[in-house]
Specification:
Helix content: under 10%
Structural class: mainly beta
Distance between the termini: 37 Å
CATH class of the largest domain: Mainly Beta
CATH superfamily of the largest domain: L,D-transpeptidase catalytic domain-like
Mean pLDDT: 80
CATH topology of the largest domain: L,D-transpeptidase catalytic domain-like
Largest sheet: 8 strands, mixed
Radius of gyration: 18 Å
Order of helices and strands: HHEEEEEEEEEEEEEEEEHEEHE
Strand content: 35-45%
CATH architecture of the largest domain: Beta Barrel
Length: 267
Amino acid sequence: MLIQRLIRYLRMPRTAMGWAVVVSVALAAAGLGFLLTGGSGTSGTALSAARAATSPRPPAAAVRLARGATLVATVRVTAPRYASPGRREAGQVPSSWWGRPSVLPVIATRPGWVRVRLAQRPNGSTAWLPASDVALGSTRFQIVINVATTHLSLYKDDRLVLSAPAGVGAVDDPTPTGEYFVAFQESPPQPNPGYGPFIMVTSAHSPKITDWEGSGDAIIGIHGPLGEDAEIGSTGARISHGCIRLHDQALEQLSGIPAGTPIDIVR
C-alpha cells in the first residue's frame, strides 16, 4: 500500500510527516463573497489554543478574520481544478492526501470561488475551486523558517511566540524556499530513532529528490533531531536532506498547529 511505502520513507533519516487538527466552517455556497481582514497568517503553541482558534462558526454571508488569521478551505469532495473562476484546467484537487483531509490555505477569493494552495507537486501549485466544494475555517498561526539563519519562528496573532534553532537542508539537498503550509501531523515510526513526539508534514517537496526509498515522493517535514542535537545546538545547522529538524522541546510547541497553517520558507 502507498501508506506503507510512506512509512518506510519516514523511517529513513532526514525525512518527515504528521497529524493535524482539521478545521471547517459552514459555507453559504455559490454566491458567497468573503471579507478578509488582518494579516496573512498566524501561529500559537498549544493544542487548546489551536482548537479554540478554529472552532466552527455558524453559516454566514462572509467570514471575517481576526488580525493575523489565515482563511483555510477543507475540500469536501475531489473537485475539478480551475485556472481562474469558471475556466477549467487539467487535473483535480483531491479531498484527501496520504489519507488525511485536504485543508488548504486560501490566498484569494471571488464571489462563489476560492483560490487555494495545493499540497502536490510542483511546489507552489495553486487552483481555483467553487466555494460550494469547500468548507471554510481559519488558523491563527504562521510558521517562518529562515534557511539562511537556520531558525524556525512561530507566530500567533502576528506575535512571535517561538524562535528555535533548526537543522535545515545541506547545500547538496537544500530546503526549498517558498510559500507552503501544514498538511497534517503523523505519529513517528516505531522504534523511534529520534523523530520526536510527532512529524509535521508540509506541502513542500525536495527540489533535488523525487523518490525517497520508493515512497513515490520526497516530502519536506518538520521533526526531531534524529540524534543530531549537538549539531543543531543553539544556532542551527545545514545537516538534512531538506527536512527541518528541531530539538524535541521546540517541536512539542508545534503540537496542535492545524492543517492549512502557512509555512513561509525564506532565505
